[in-house]
Amino acid sequence: MTSVRSYRDLLVWQKGMDLAAEVYRLSRAWPKEELYGLTSQARRAASAIPANIAEGYGRQSTASYAQFLKIARGSLNELETHSLLAERIGLAAQGPCALCLEDADELGRMLGGLINSLSKRSPRP
């Protein structure tokens, strides 16, 4: 097991980055008229996930870190909603969208596990 020296060492952050990159790739095929609509919203939510994980990691307290992880989980739920809407209105194909949602489910479980783990720890000074 390797030690965590940076948020970049966290598997949950790495998975968040992978998901965000995948959302950017998938949304490139969406119509240009959605650039300032659903495309922008999905990309913003996707990039917020690893950004909040990183920001929380840099905080001084465990409670603050856990709060940022909860915000990341909220952004993940937002992304799932945008993905389902894109699929429902025909912007996104069902297959790639289903894979994205599977990755989102896994990331959600990872975030939940990390939040639970932090809640059992004593606060960081």
Shape: elongated
Could you spell the SSE succession in H and E letters?
HHHH
Percent of residues in helices? over 70%
Mean pLDDT: 93
Q: Give the low-confidence spans.
A: none
Number of helices, counting only DSSP H or I runs of 4 residues or more: 4
For the record, what CATH class applies?
A: Mainly Alpha
What is the CATH topology classification name?
A: de novo design (two linked rop proteins)
Q: What structural category arises from helix and sheet content?
A: mainly alpha
What is the total tally of β strands?
Answer: 0
Give a quick summary of the entry.
With 125 residues, the protein is mostly helical. The protein has a single domain (9-119), classed as de novo design (two linked rop proteins) (Up-down Bundle). Helices cover 72% and strands 0% of the residues.
Labels describing this entry:
125 residues; mainly alpha; elongated; 4 helices; de novo design (two linked rop proteins)
